[in-house]
Write a structure and sequence with these properties.
Elements lengths: L7 E3 L2 E3 L4 H12 L5 E4 L4 H9 L4 E4 L4 H12 L7 E4 L5 H6 L2 E4 L5 H6 L2 E2 L8 H12 L3 H9 L1
Parallel strand pairs: 3-4, 5-6, 6-7
Antiparallel strand pairs: 1-2
Helix pairs in contact: 1-6
């Protein structure tokens, strides 16, 4: 949910826009001990580049089932489905959302995704939705106050 779904193609290249606050939010999550991964059904060099910039631990760009990919990640990390917070917006996300401990739909998700989500963001994907969820997670873990204090110095 790092983009609004827009893909710009031209001169044999692909471009996507990423929200800078979403990126900082992911860095804050990582700094506070939350592991972060991305799964995209649309393989793209620009997605890989952004993942590398943010040093995202798990970046999977697959044409296969996202459920299979998450199950591989769970086996690798030792986590269970209830440990997963997953954000989605379209039919390719339904299987993971159905199983995740916390299922999040972005504001511009299809109705079926919103229907099974535990939480629907107030903003669209690519427009701060990830950051919104990051803040919710860090507040729930009583870590947001630390973030604020660290940046007030």
């Amino acid at each position: 949910m790092l983009t609004d779904g827009t893909v710009i193609l031209g001169d044999g290249k692909e471009y996507k826009a990423f929200n800078i606050q979403d990126g900082l939010g992911l860095l804050l999550l990582k700094k506070h001990g939350v592991r972060v991964g991305w799964i995209s059904a649309r393989p793209s060099a620009v997605t890989q580049q952004r993942g590398e910039e943010l040093r995202i631990e798990f970046v999977y760009q697959v044409k296969e089932s996202k459920v299979t990919t998450v199950e591989q990640l769970l086996a690798l990390t030792g986590y269970q489905w209830e440990d997963v917070c997953y954000m989605g917006d379209d039919v390719v996300d339904l299987g993971v959302l159905k199983r995740a401990g916390v299922a999040v739909a972005v504001a511009n998700a299809i109705a079926d995704v919103k229907g099974i989500a535990h939480y629907v963001t107030t903003v669209r994907g690519g427009h701060g939705a990830v950051r919104e969820v990051v803040e919710l997670i860090l507040r729930a873990q009583n870590k947001w106050k630390d973030v604020i204090e660290q940046h007030m110095q």
